[in-house]
Input
Amino acid sequence: MSGASIETTLDLWASSLRDVKRRMRPLFGQARVARSAEHFLDGLLGEERRKTGWMRAEAAGDPGPWRQQAILGRARWDADALRDVARDYALETLADADAVLVIDETGFLKQGKASCGVGRQYTGSAGKITNCQIGVFGCYATPRGHAFIDRELYLPKSWTDDKARMAKAHVPQEIITRVDGGFSTKPALALAMIARAIAAKVPFSFVAADTVYGVGDIEMALRRAGKGYVLGVKSNDAFRSWGKPEPVAGAAKDIAEALPNAAWRRLSAGEGTKGERLHDWAYLELADLDAGDYDAALEGQIWTRGLLIRRKLADGDLAFFTTWAPKGTTIEKLAAVEGRRWAIEDSFETAKNELGLDHNETRSWHGWRRHVSLVMLAFAMMATIRVRANEAAIAANKPPPKTLRRRRTTPKALIARRKPGLT
Output
């Protein structure tokens, strides 16, 4: 996790855990419910690989899982308030004006038909159409670290067309009775999360996302907000330049295949688990526009719309991105922004493998949101500990870790790695 000593990391762990519990305690009206929530958090951070109700109850010393289940079900508290606590806590350590807000989705494999939002749908987690829930997430990514700051549960049409089914899963009435029937596309959920981040004055300069989110309202919203973007698009999406010396017109794939060898540059998209993630990149500026056309406050600022193309070294596979950035933004910068998408992939893997993100045993709307929000807070705590441990290592003239990959860092795991003879 870091180059800091085990003793230093253990101290950081203890103080950070006290801090996050203190922050979330006011969300619970009764002291006993607050204690159960604290025990729930302890269970998520514990050594057990399966974060089931019984496992969490055993770790908390409860005779059964009922108190743990009540936190997700019967108890009265606001999951969105906890989401905001997790976001603000993460930002205290990670806030960076040059941060990238990464949007992506992940699947939660399920059996049966009762869990809110479950259905046969495609998820990249399994690489196929399967029975699952889909959650859309916002991850805050900076060179110092990354953490989830928002989430939404996707409800497919098979759910929003069935009001009784939604009511049985405790979907709020204000959603069920909406004019659109409660249905929101994944880009619409992402747009709502971007709007919340902007309203909360979360500092970031770019949004990065894959092809699900690449064309439409998100582009316009980010232009109006003065935010850049690197958003995935399809190979057959059309692009056209204007006001540029070299005209560009056609489908993204055709444009890429017509590029000369000199147009490609080998650049790193950032460091991964196996070192630098090298690809060949090409960038075509399509138009220079006055940002004031989208927001009067930005009048006179010239931004560039462009097409960024990534080519894999191994097989030549192409990926395409529509971009919006201040004039003069380099291809190196845009490649680095796109590379920040790795942060949310790492976050999903870690949160599922170590914090039980996909171990939610409830079927309700609020149960999913509560469970995921508690995991978000646990993840933010881990991200904070890692940054502070790295800072302590640097202060002690020890090398920081080469990557941001997570290792088991519970107190038991740390003690187990203690060198013989240390006390």
Q: What stands out?
A: The chain has a mean pLDDT of 90. The chain has two domains: 6-22+24-76+369-416, 77-352.
